[in-house]
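This section describes the prediction task in plain terms. A model, or a person checking by hand, is given the sequence of a single protein chain and must write out its three-dimensional structure as a string of tokens. No templates, partner chains or ligands are provided. The sample shown here is typical of the held-out split.
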Amino acid sequence: MQFPSKLIEDAVNAFATLPGIGKKTALRLVMHLLQKELEDTKHISDAILKMRTDIKFCNTCHNLSDDDLCSICTNSYRDKKVICVVENFRDIIAVENTRHYNGSYHVLGGLISPIDGIGPDKLNIQTLEERVKNDQIQEIIMALNPTIDGDTTIFYISKLLNKYEVKITSIARGIAFGGELEYVDEITLARSIQSRLPYENYLSK
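The expected answer:
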């Protein structure tokens, strides 16, 4: 692809590093920005830079946040005795979009994967145990992707928390094995949450 300007070429190449953005789409974005007012373009770039430099992780659940605690953890109407354990913040968005869950969350930041060298020590598992130990948690909902790594992580956490008086459930298998939560339609995900089962039952199926 030939460019009339090195500046345009650099901008296209920068956009093309984003997931799902090819060179043609990147060029359309660049041309769109060129047609916008300078202040509009500056507003976009400032918003992206501020997001990248100022974003925080919630001290309690590890969700993305503007402050030390996220808006979910500070919401007094949420059920703090129930924790939905997810792999990443995109899964929180997926569950929240169902409008069928009103508890709290805990973001692991990944899944146990021996092949990739990811062990329990590299995930936010210790802080989950601390919450169960100190906050009188009544139920842990394992809302992890139904994959080998997801099942391995669920098994590890369930064994770790077995010494506490906490109910451990898993979202129902309305989600196909090998699927990812962020791509599941909201109705299927909502039904999976509502039809969650005790983890022991889940293992025996």
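For orientation: The chain has two domains: 6-54, 64-204.
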